[in-house]
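Technical annex, item 7. During the second reporting period the consortium partners agreed on a shared format for inverse folding records so that results from different sites could be compared directly. Each record opens with the tokenized structure and is followed by the designed sequence. A conforming record, contributed by the partner at site C, is shown below for reference.
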């Protein structure tokens, strides 16, 4: 009979996903949200006859920052 209590194998457990994978998902989500954000930004500017506070790139960046962590922690 084998005794596993004295010689337990050490396994590495990863608590955080790799940074490259996170950045790849972030880039894909950013590029996917950009066309829709640009459309809504243009429509909002046309309706209000003034430019919104945040530009389309800033809005898409914010959306990607919100969505990407949900993939890894959800």
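Designed sequence (site C submission):
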């Amino acid at each position: 009979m084998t005794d596993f209590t004295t010689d337990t194998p050490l396994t590495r457990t990863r608590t955080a996903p790799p940074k490259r994978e996170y950045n790849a998902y972030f880039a894909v989500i950013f590029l996917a949200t950009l066309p829709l954000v640009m459309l809504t930004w243009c429509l909002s500017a046309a309706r209000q006859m003034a430019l919104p506070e945040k530009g389309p790139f800033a809005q898409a960046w914010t959306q990607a920052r919100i969505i990407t962590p949900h993939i890894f922690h959800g």
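Residues 19-48 form the longest helix (30 residues). The mean pLDDT is 86. All partners now use this format for quarterly exchanges.
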